[in-house]
Amino acid sequence: MRIVFLASGAFAQPTLRWLAQSGHEVPLLITQPARASGRGRRLTRTPAQALADELGIPVLATEDVNAPEVVEQVRSTGARLGVVIAFGQKLGPQLLEALPGGFVNLHASLLPKYRGAAPINWAIVRGEKTTGCTVFRIVGRMDAGPILAQDETEIGESETAGELHDRLADLGVQTVAVALAQFQGDDIPPGTPQDEARKSIAPKLKKTDGLVRFDRPAKAVVHHIHGMTPWPGAAARFRARDGRWEDLLLVRARLAEQPPVSTACAPGSLTEDLRVAASGGFVQLIEVKPSSGRDMTWTDYVNGRHVTAGDAFITPSAEQAT
């Protein structure tokens, strides 16, 4: 089948590579324009374009996918279907009608749960045990179209959003393959309507969403740390009793299996065995990232900074997080 591919982020790369190696044909990738990034502010292609260039797939980078000339270029490809993954722009009605089979989207959740821009992060933050991938037909409302295929997977206890992102990107190849197989001959599968009563929203993350508060339940703190890693990062400030302080990101943690001997600790304070007190429990840090360095084990951080019981973590202000 001839397919126009609309994608920007790295989440789309496994499916694009699979399409290029399968019996399908991709005459055009549409993506976001290159953006300035890094200290040198050099223009950087989207991950999807970088792979398309490697595979020899023609690329159209545009700020407005709904511009009349773009819609006409899509129509002129002779493609039957459009596949959208991590693209970053909303498709308008004229574009949605430009191809005989319409457009389908790969979304990183088990719709109708977690519609929106950050489904992977919010599934972890809210303590979900499972998540998955969904391919659905695109309609006017966000992530609300009929479902063509779904695949489910468990979320690991210490899995970060970045790690789950990569696993779901690979799983999504299978989900897309099942959906495309339904377009046999001239068939246009209607899909299964979503249950609106079960919908939930996964809004776009802000830098301030990463701020860690130890006055919350310990289990919620652990989920928050994993769900905010690697972006926007679970931000906290370490403050020693002698006045030293340092901003850092908490990368990985677990719920403390046994309470320490002394439990009379304010939220954020470190116990005798250097667990962090939270509301109704304790958090055992596993990995952290100092603002001036790379990820390191909590043990190495403790030894390097001479961390002792009574030191504490506090929540940075919103201004410090931006």
Please describe what this structure looks like.
It is a single chain. By secondary structure, this protein is α/β, with parallel strands linked by helices. The chain has two domains: 2-198, Formyl transferase, N-terminal domain (Rossmann fold); 207-321, Roll (Methionyl-tRNA Fmet Formyltransferase, Chain A, domain 2), CATH 3.10.25. 25% of the residues lie in helices and 26% in strands. It has helices spanning 13-21, 47-55, 68-76, 93-96, 119-125, 161-180, 218-227, 298-305, 318-321, and strands spanning 2-7, 25-31, 35-37, 42-44, 59-61, 81-85, 103-107, 130-137, 147-154, 234-239, 245-255, 276-278, 281-290, 296-297, 312-314. The chain has a seven-stranded mixed beta sheet with strand order 5-2-1-6-7-8-9. Strand 6, helix 4 (93-96) and strand 7 form a beta-alpha-beta unit. The model has no long low-confidence stretch (mean pLDDT 94).
Q: Percent of residues in beta strands?
A: 25-35%
Q: Termini separation (Å)? A: 46 Å
In this structure, how is the largest beta sheet organized?
7 strands, mixed
Strand order of the largest sheet: 5-2-1-6-7-8-9
Low-confidence stretches: none
Rounded Rg: 23 Å
Please tell me the total number of domains. Answer: 2
CATH architecture of the largest domain: 3-Layer(aba) Sandwich
